[in-house]
Write a structure and sequence with these properties.
InterPro entries: CBS_dom, CBS_dom_sf, CorC_N, FAD-bd_PCMH-like_sf, FAD-bd_PCMH_sub2, Ion_transp-like_CBS, Transptr-assoc_dom. The protein is of the alpha+beta class and 292 residues long. The protein has 3 domains: 50 residues; 115 residues, Roll (CBS-domain), CATH 3.10.580; 89 residues, 2-Layer Sandwich (Uridine Diphospho-n-acetylenolpyruvylglucosamine Reductase, domain 3). It contains 10 helices and 12 strands. It has a 5-stranded antiparallel sheet, with helices on one face. It has a 4-stranded mixed sheet with strand order 1-7-6-5. Helix 7 links the parallel strand 5 and strand 6. It is globular. It starts with a helix and ends in a 10-residue tail after the last strand.
Amino acid sequence: MSTEPPLKATATKHRTFFERISGVFHRPTREDFIDTLHEANEQKLIDDSALKMMEGVMQFYNLRACDLMVPRSQMQVVDLSESKDVWLPQMIEAGHSRFPVIMDGDRDNVIGILHAKTILRVLVDPNFKAKDHLRAVKFIPESMPLNDLLRDFKLEHNHMAIVVDEFGSVSGLITIEDVLEQIVGEIDDEFDEVDEDADNILEDPKHGCWRVKALTEIEQFNNFFATEINTDEDCHCETIGGLIADRLEHMPKIGETVVIEGFRFTVLRADERQVRLLKVEKLPTTDPAKKE
């Protein structure tokens, strides 16, 4: 006997699901599509990792290079106008694979990228000149979308770009790892050290904002900004990320914003379990005396 009827029933079930996905594509509503992905996850059609990556890709269009870059003041650079006895220990301590190279302390004059592998030759050959073996610099505007940047990284085999403003001044740097982490989550290697307090709050004075790790304790945040967020312990949270999740009343997603006591928090990195990185902006205060 033919088993065609059960197959038809199964096909109908699958067709109904995919028809719903098709319907989402015909309606310009990203939220509906994400809801459908979550339903597919609940039905075990896609696993948690796939769901997280799809959500990361969907949020890519919201982010620009300036959202994820390491601010200029926090860039770890090599100044070849200094003695190698100065910059070589700094490179070894930092543990990065690539460093922007400048001269005479001028961070607006990045002349190349120095790869850590090149330093091996410096160690064995005293006459080796690192300046003669620099790699080309990729400069990008602050407004460059992340999806375009990732495409360029792949095509040009670059791993680092220097971000510049409209006047050509250096604003910061961004790496391919920063971009990929928006899709796959945090990427840690054997050289990453866990330090819950180091660089939890990075200032970006050019754009008037800060990048704050979600695991930053609320007490540290309050001490840094001289504020009293959540001092009444109304949600019993210990970290800024926990406070954001409490105020949103759901797991924060990339691109979501919330205003808390004069600060706007924007989620830059998050996964299905927790928020990772936030952009924090201090909102201007309104002086009632100036109102007419």
